[in-house]
Write a structure and sequence with these properties.
45% of the residues lie in helices and 15% in strands. The chain is of the alpha+beta class. The protein has three domains: 2-98, no CATH class; 104-213; 231-418, Intergrase catalytic core (hpI Integrase, Chain A), CATH 1.10.443. The strands form five sheets. The protein has a three-stranded antiparallel beta sheet. It has a three-stranded antiparallel beta sheet with strand order 8-9-10. Strand 6 and strand 7 form a beta hairpin. The chain is elongated and about 100 Å long.
Length: 433
């Protein structure tokens, strides 16, 4: 297959440059590139503008012709082998797309944000592995789109697919850090979706920059300092008497259920008695759609018993996060702890997570339930059992999620050795001094 350029001489010396797509007897297509040149400056043998001083736009035209030839060759190879019809209309459209000569209904074929907009609009009807995209995923796409729109407004530009280069990456990441004050993990999620959309655009055979595949075009990330509650602290919460404060008593009981089930707040807040059978909680996770089964332990059983077999009253996530901070403060979880919490960062009331050392109760949110459950059970029961309940799909993800310190992991191993020795009737022979 060859891509050729030629001009048609006319009385007027200004002539259009034509592109020809030819492959033996199978394909012979021609269309205008829309680029014009004085035919006296055209080098027919080398199919480019001659190196003449008078041809002031020679470098621009020659560069564009090389890029167009590369683009047509690549898209032809992809689409011909994808059983897409290659005809004169196909060639005409590809040339129009390359030069950004599209009408409003085709903007997404040239402009990155327009592509994302159209994807988000159609997202409710799209499938991922046979299932509809979750509202949470669609919201993440929309959030990413909003940040891109803000970036375009800030830069006074409209990003094309070909603009998503490594230079764009560094500039955009810098904008997110310095102007938007976003966390590294938030920026990482945005970059993840940008790479996803670049891959989709690339698959469609549109002229997208290949820089999204570069090893430096990566998700920024940071080590989070999320906290968890130890079993001792959980016992303190369970045993504390909130009898004179029904509001905190109810929130404490919800917290105990969350801490002992490993369920997300969106799941344990909608628990009802229909989810409990034979001393087991069985519920379909709202986020993943997977079924979780968790046996009821003594703390949950006591919570149900004190309420006459009923569950505590569900409350909003916002109230839950507020009330459990009050619970932690009341009990005395006030040791300075490294973590991050939402704080106002400017006069406009913008809030962002800010890392630092805070009283532990100030760092308590609904996420502490699932993380404490996983962290406290790690090393006590097989990891796959915990993962089946928490919904982590890989052990790497799970190990990144739990918050065991090196010394705590050493203690788990020490206890394992001790139990193994006791089972074998052995006694320790070494004493650490």
């Amino acid at each position: 297959m060859k891509v050729l350029y030629f001009i048609k001489k006319r009385k007027n010396p200004i002539s259009k440059i034509y592109i020809r797509l030819w492959e033996s007897k199978k394909i012979d297509l021609t269309t205008s590139t829309g680029v014009q040149i004085n035919y006296n400056y055209w080098d027919s043998k080398n199919e480019k503008v001659k190196n003449k001083v008078e041809a002031i736009d020679k470098d621009f035209i020659n560069t564009k012709l090389l890029e167009l030839k590369k683009y047509i060759t690549e898209t032809y190879n992809i689409e011909f082998n994808s059983e897409i019809t290659i005809n004169a209309e196909w060639l005409k459209k590809k040339v129009a797309i390359f030069f950004n000569r599209v009408d409003d209904s085709q903007l997404e074929k040239v402009y990155f944000v327009e592509w994302v907009k159209k994807f988000v609009e159609n997202a409710p009807n799209k499938l991922n592995r046979g299932k509809k995209l979750s509202p949470r995923t669609i919201l993440a796409y929309q959030t990413m789109l909003n940040h891109l729109l803000d970036y375009e407004a800030y830069k006074k530009t409209n990003l094309k697919h070909s603009d998503i280069t490594l230079s764009f990456y560094w500039d955009f990441v810098g904008y997110c850090r310095d102007i938007k004050k976003l966390s590294e993990n938030t920026i990482g999620n945005i970059i993840k979706y940008i790479k996803f959309f670049c891959g989709s655009i690339d698959f469609e055979g549109l002229p997208v920059s290949k820089d999204y595949k570069h090893k430096e075009f990566v998700k920024p990330k940071e080590q989070t300092d999320d906290i968890y509650l130890t079993t001792k602290e959980i016992d303190q919460i369970f045993n504390y008497d909130f009898g004179d404060n029904p509001r905190l008593d109810n929130a404490r009981d919800l917290l105990i259920i969350g801490l002992n089930t490993g369920l997300r707040v969106s799941d344990f807040m909608r628990l009802d008695l229909s989810h409990i059978k034979d001393d087991t909680i069985r519920i379909q996770a709202k986020k993943t759609g997977k079924i979780a089964e968790i046996p009821i332990n003594e703390q949950i059983a006591h919570t149900l018993e004190k309420r006459g077999g009923n569950l505590p009253k569900a409350i909003s996530d916002q109230k839950f996060n507020k009330y459990i901070k009050e619970i932690g403060q009341t009990i005395g979880f006030d040791e300075l702890t490294k973590g991050a919490k939402m704080e106002i960062i400017d006069d406009k009331g913008t809030t962002r997570k800010v890392s630092g050392f805070y009283p532990k109760y100030e760092l308590m949110t609904s996420h502490i339930c699932r993380r404490s459950f996983a962290t406290n059970l790690y090393g006590q029961i097989p990891t796959p059992v915990i993962m089946a309940i928490t919904g982590h799909t890989t052990e790497a993800m799970f190990l990144n999620y739990i918050k065991k310190t090196a010394s705590e992991n050493a203690e788990v191993l020490r206890n394992f050795y001790k139990r193994s020795a006791e089972e074998k009737g052995l006694k320790p022979v070494l004493k650490v001094i």
